[in-house]
Amino acid sequence: MIKKPSSLHLDRRQFLNRMAAAGAGAAAMSALGGLPAEAAASELRVLFAGGTWQKWFYDTFCKAFEESNGIKMIWKTGLGFEPLVIAQRRRPQWDLIHQNQNTSSQLGALDAVIEWQEENIPNLKDVHPAFRYPYLAGKIHTPYGLAVNTKRIKRPITKWADLWDPEFAGKVAFPKWVWMGQEVFHAINQLNGGTPDNVDPGIAKMKELYQTNKAQTINNVEHTHQMLVEEEVWICPHFGARTEKAAKAGAPVEFVIPEEGGLSFIYNTSIINNRPKDSMELAHKLVNATLDPDSQIAFSRLTGYPPTNRKAMANLPADMKNLELSDADLEKLGKIQRSFDYMAMFAYRDQIKSRWDKEVIGG
Questions:
Q1: Same domain assignment for residues 21 and 133
Q2: Which of 58, 78, 154, 256: disulfide with 146, CB 3.0–4.6 Å?
């Protein structure tokens, strides 16, 4: 069990103190971009993961935006840019950072990114409340639950606890920590009575999954796809659209939202604080474009994930009706995450990762 502070939830001062070391250690990273702090309004600078997702994002939202506003998009691609943004939060070099509701909430607690307001982002009013968070709203959402092999598993799968069924020993898998493992771990920990500063329940459950049920580790979407198609894995946490993609490739799988609630990762570009006024106005205009209903439908067609704008949800083309979700499904998705204490998760993440490596993977 991690030794906890006097209060269960960290206040902002405690959180800032804990992150000071991380920010100082990341200061050297400020040379990554090599760009002056004062941005011209003719440029918009974006930290993004890269890959196919960036191409789809650029083609759908940015290409026309560049042309209509007479600007150039400058990209820095990779993962884990949060320490850079923390280190630069007084004189930032970047305008936007692509992330989810978890990391945006953590940066927001440090005033490193700003809250989204309808007066600056008009399309925000049309986004379904399930996909609105203080520091971003999703351009799409990514339903996350269980991928289940219906040929090998005959009984109904309804709960996260089904991962621990001894009948699936050696054929159950869990995502790699630096991919989706950290997020799913916190869900498992919470469902078993844990908190961000008491991960004993989650560590015990995951140790059982790996040591007793011989869980495999899935590294990324491509690896998971291969394992599902080859039927090396029968059940695992996974994205809904990626499960459907595996089914189209021949895997006998279906996507299940567990009754305790699924997860839903809400991705978009958070607006970095303390940038020049003209740059921040451009950033607001771009994120507003990501919430446009027609553009969201186009992005959903590329990604296979549902839109977040209610107008887009109500006007999906006939060939995309499979992306429709019931009100009950929308309520279940993200249900677990809505009670996460993101500040505590961020503050304790290194300690939790050490326990994961030692007690779960290396145990």
A1: yes
A2: 256
Structure tokens at 298: 């186009």
Measuring CA to CA, which residue among 53, 358, 350, 59 is closest to residue 210? 358
pLDDT score for 157: 98
Amino acid at 11: D
* Residue that is last in its domain, among 241, 263, 285: 263
pLDDT in tens, 316-349: 999 999 888 887 877 778 778 878 887 888 888 8
Q: What domain range includes position 95?
A: 12-140+265-349
C-alpha span between 325 and 161 (Å, rounded): 24
DSSP state letters, 94-112: -SEEEE-HHHHHHHHHTTS
* Cβ atoms of 141 and 306 closer than 8 Å: yes
Tallying the residues shown for the chain, one arrives at 363
Residue 245 counted as domain residue: yes
User: Burial level of 78, CB count in 10 A (0-12/13-18/19+)?
Assistant: exposed
User: For residue 311, what are its two tokens?
Assistant: 């107008």
Using CA of residue 228, residue 232, residue 234, residue 237, what is the dihedral sign? negative
Alpha carbons 188 and 140: distance in angstroms, whole number: 24
pLDDT for residue 13: 52
Of the candidates 240, 263, 286, which is a domain's last residue? 263
**Average pLDDT of span 66-95:** 94
Structural domains in the chain (count) = 2
Q: How far is CA 320 from CA 17, 113, 314, in A?
A: 47, 34, 11
The single residue listed with the structure tokens 């621990």 is: 164
CB atoms within 10 A of CB 296: 28
Q: Domain check: are 286 and 227 in the same one?
A: no
User: Is 24 in the same domain as 93?
Assistant: yes
Of the chain, the end-to-end C-alpha distance in Å amounts to 16
Residues 247 and 183 in one domain: yes
